[in-house]
Amino acid sequence: MSALFRCRALGRTFGAGAAAVTAVAEATCRIEPGDRIAVSGASGSGKSTLLHLIAGLETPTSGEAEWPGLGGDPRRPPGAVAMVFQAPSLLPALDVTENVSLPLLLCGHEPAEARKRAIAALELLGLDELAGRLPEEISGGQAQRVVIARAIATRPVLLLADEPTGQLDTGTAAAVLDVLLAAAAHLDAALVVATHDEDVAARLGTRWHMRDGHLRTGWAAPC
C-alpha cells in the first residue's frame, strides 16, 4: 500500500521580511499505514504546524507534500484524515452525540446515519452514558475522549493528535492515550501524536523530534 503521507524539504513560514517566522523548515518524512509515531519537542518547536501540514490544514510555503495513499488529497474521501486538537473544542450548545455527529453531517451523511455512527463511536469508547450531556456537564478527560470519538466516527485511515494530553493529569492522560491507541487499532489507522510528554512518546513505536522548526526522524531520547 502507498504511503499515506510523504514530504520533502517541506516548510511553512508565517509573515514576511524581518517579521517572518519559520515554523517548519525543510522537513522530510513519510507516514505508512499502521504507523505509530510520536512527535516530541518543546512548546513552540513546530509540532502543531507539522501536523497541520500533514492534515492539509496549512499550505506549505516551500517543499513538496503528497498523500499517495489518499489519492493525492487529504480531504478525499471526506474524513480520511482526522485530527484531535489540544483543547477539546466541543460546541457548548450541542450535546455529546450532536458534537460527535457534526463532522459526519459536514461530510454529507444523512442525519440518521450520522447519529448512528456517532453513537457507535461513543459505545466503542465506553462513553455512551454521556450521549445526552452537554460539554459543561462532563469532565476534561471525558471531553477529550469525546473528541476522540468525534474523530474516529469518520473512520479515518490517518489519525493525528496534537498534545491530546497536554491539559490532563497523569492518570487521565494515560487513559486518553489508551483510548487513542485502541481506536487506531480498531480502525487499522496510522496514528501520529505530537507531545512534549515523555511518558506518552515512549508508548508509540516510532519517535520523531522537532526543535526550532527542524524535524529529525529516527530520533532516540537521551538516557
From TrEMBL:
<dbReference type="GO" id="GO:0022857">
    <property type="term" value="F:transmembrane transporter activity"/>
</dbReference>
<dbReference type="InterPro" id="IPR015854">
    <property type="entry name" value="ABC_transpr_LolD-like"/>
</dbReference>
<dbReference type="InterPro" id="IPR003439">
    <property type="entry name" value="ABC_transporter-like_ATP-bd"/>
</dbReference>
<dbReference type="InterPro" id="IPR003593">
    <property type="entry name" value="AAA+_ATPase"/>
</dbReference>
<feature type="signal peptide">
    <location>
        <begin position="1"/>
        <end position="18"/>
    </location>
</feature>
<keyword id="KW-0449">Lipoprotein</keyword>
<dbReference type="InterPro" id="IPR017871">
    <property type="entry name" value="ABC_transporter-like_CS"/>
</dbReference>
<dbReference type="GO" id="GO:0005886">
    <property type="term" value="C:plasma membrane"/>
</dbReference>
<dbReference type="GO" id="GO:0005524">
    <property type="term" value="F:ATP binding"/>
</dbReference>
<dbReference type="GO" id="GO:0016887">
    <property type="term" value="F:ATP hydrolysis activity"/>
</dbReference>
<protein>
    <submittedName>
        <fullName>ABC-type lipoprotein export system ATPase subunit</fullName>
    </submittedName>
</protein>
<feature type="domain" description="ABC transporter">
    <location>
        <begin position="5"/>
        <end position="223"/>
    </location>
</feature>
<dbReference type="InterPro" id="IPR027417">
    <property type="entry name" value="P-loop_NTPase"/>
</dbReference>
<keyword id="KW-0547">Nucleotide-binding</keyword>
<keyword id="KW-0067">ATP-binding</keyword>
<keyword id="KW-0732">Signal</keyword>
<dbReference type="Pfam" id="PF00005">
    <property type="entry name" value="ABC_tran"/>
</dbReference>
